[in-house]
Structures
1.
Amino acid sequence: MEEFDVIVVGAGPAGAAAAFAAAKAGVGVLLLERGQKPGTKTVSGGLLYTHVMNRYFPDFGSQESPVERFIDRYVLGLLDEQRSTCVDFFDPGMSRSPYNCASVLRSKLDPWLVSKAESAGATVALGVRVDGLIRSQGKISGVLSSGDEFRSKVVIQCDGFNSLLSRDIGLHDEWQGKTVGIGIKEVIRLSEEEISRRFRLSGRSGVEYTFLGLPKGVEGGGFLYTNSDSLSLGLILNMEGAVLKGVEISEAIELFKSHPLISGLVEGGTVEEYSTCLVAEGGFESMPPLYAGGYLAAGSAAAMVLNTGFNLRGMDFAVGSGSVAGELAAEAVKAKNTSSAFMSNYLTRLKQSFVLTDLLSYKGYPKFFRNTRLYSVYPEIMNGFLHDAYFVDGRKKNHLLGLARKSIKGKVSTMRMIADVFSLIRNI
Ligand SMILES: Cc1cc2nc3c(=O)[nH]c(=O)nc-3n(C[C@H](O)[C@H](O)[C@H](O)COP(=O)(O)OP(=O)(O)OC[C@H]3O[C@@H](n4cnc5c(N)ncnc54)[C@H](O)[C@@H]3O)c2cc1C
């Protein structure tokens, strides 16, 4: 039986950051990952907000780092079956240091982060699937893998959203369909020159698109991000909404790609990767307990994901919470105090950091985004209104208020619209 100070389960952004922080603080760390290579068993759209990297991994922006492009253009599109209305925000300052966010591919980001943990002194074991936790004297004291025991003073659980260990420890039951999304992602190969030409990009700058409205009526949205020589394209649909409406995620992505706006953006590309994954959608309200004696949970294992409609954040929370967890685990080991009371400092520190501050201040968003009219009625109204405003056919042209009334008529009642505006104000 082997014994370590700290065992970290899962070498995604949360686990690699936790292992790096604990090893840097001078304690013995074992990082366990089920994949044969980091980044092969996980899915992410791929936009990473750089503030957290500037703090914990300051060489993230260097030429050797896994950055694909720095995003300086943000497009929010409302789609109906054929049409689209886009808000296009461009700020060239965001592709200069300290940047805002970067597109990344997990097949490059995760190995890079794990190499940082290794350089700080962590032992990394790949191809090891943890299937349970060891408990003794009311605390977590190690993990089990295929009958082998790995003992430690602290276990940091970073095994992602669909976690075996959370169920094992009894911290939460099965996830509820309305707080779970199904994500699907494709990496589409296109040459660097073509991407720069098609999206009007220069140097390492990039563009993010997020979309609402397809497939019609299912809570969720689509994304398209530019990498150096590929595009990351995908959908995240609410599980309950997709099941109730009988929408298959594989059909949904084909429908999404066949929309005239999207098909023009991906034309000529070759799909090189295709992956699906569950994603937390419940926000702050659906987070499980984050600590116990000898135990901490970080990243999406703790449901730390935030969807605001115009961005999806999970990786920055993973790196932020993993770093705080790694630092605290090292302190607990040095203080020879891994009691639940000591581990509760984790919650205090997360509340002082951007992780719980942001998740808390956006806690009403998941409720607001459960309104199905956002994904059908309102995109149709907006596209219908702009169609009528732009289209000139020689007949008497109504004034804009009249056109707005016409596009709303029969789609949603005035009372419902007022209620939706109140819900927007209350929850957002
Ligand atoms: C389609 C989609 C798009 C997304 N887009 C974005 C985005 O653009 N930006 C953003 O910030 N976030 C995005 N997210 C969310 C983001 O991917 C997650 O929040 C982030 O990956 C969480 O990191 P993590 O380290 O906590 O978990 P994960 O990235 O899930 O990593 C968990 C690791 O643990 C390993 N593991 C799992 N079980 C075991 C086990 N039993 N034993 C050993 N190892 C194990 C896995 O193999 C994996 O390497 C997206 C998610 C999806 C599904």
2.
Amino acid sequence: MLCCIFCLFSESPKDQSPSEKQREVSKLPSNPEEVEDLRRDSATNPLIAFTFEELKTITGNFRQDRVLGGGGFGSVYKGFITEDLREGLQPIQVAVKVHDGDNSYQGHREWLAEVIFLGQLSHPNLVKLIGYCCEDDHRVLIYEYMARGSVENNLFSKVLLPLPWSIRMKIAFGAAKGLAFLHEAKKPVIYRDFKTSNILLDLDYNAKLSDFGLAKDGPEGDKSHVSTRIMGTYGYAAPEYIMTGHLTPRSDVYSFGVVLLELLTGRKSLDKSRPAREQNLTDWALPLLKEKKKLLNIIDPRLSGDYPIKGVHKAAMLAYHCLNRNPKARPLMRDIVDSLEPLQVPEDDVSTGKVITVISGLPKEELKRKEDPHCN
Ligand SMILES: Nc1ncnc2c1ncn2[C@@H]1O[C@H](COP(=O)(O)OP(=O)(O)O)[C@@H](O)[C@H]1O
Ligand SMILES: [Mg+2]
């Protein structure tokens, strides 16, 4: 079913005529009944269809001080579902993603992709979709609230404490398990937009993949790849995908390598503020990953040397293999999960002990991390 839906809405070539585009737009669902019709055979997870009025209540009328983040197609607000909103609902904190842009065809299609994929898949390392709103031109998604926000917000924040090594490895492990689950699903899924802003963290730094707007069904039968319009994020996308549009699960493995590099170095995949040869993280760091002595010079200085050297070498070699230009030479996500497992630090040290000890000695401003992890 999932496949059929994505055949129906297969990505349109750039030279598509306006009338063809119009025909495809009219195939997109325009109310909750049509959404549920599309979901009928694949709807493993029950989703709540919210009205727009209910979302106003949940988000305090989309108050600006509730904005958690924004991106391609609108803003994400923090919200609260209270018992009196509707009978039978449990009180819960949520994140509400409003596709408010220009109500574009692409925006609506990405909204639908999330409804379909997250309405079907469930795993501890994927963010949980609670419901959606499909009313008039409103296209909204309601997710479980992830208290610490994105890995991007945490890793590159100038205000928050640097993430310790143990937590970086926990994040890599969690995110790898999420991707492995997608690749090994009965109908494999390619995530296609793996990057730090799409990995969210709960209070205990469990990583969950969110933002399934660009996810695609994997190749079927004896096909080696799916052909797509090239979409994703420059700096994370695999070189062969950018060049040919051929998408395989190994494209996600490459992006995973980039994120692992970001966790190791504390640098962004693309950073225009750096000297020219350091702007593209992969180009700059790749040759250094195999050189044991030089490697330590590129590890995030904010870690102040507080990491196990052997663990750093192993993680660096893993990133190196993920970033192989030959997609077939890259490891499978399952191999990556297995390699990251021995690099994990026992849970006790990760969650409370070490981190809280550091937090308690902080200036007031940095204490904000604990109270409101979204403040960065
Ligand atoms: N469930 C959530 N809990 C907390 N913050 C979230 C949640 N979903 C999204 N965000 C925040 O909003 C940002 C953008 O969300 P995302 O789903 O990636 O939207 P976009 O399609 O615009 O990239 C994220 O990087 C994160 O900071
Ligand atoms: Mg995103």
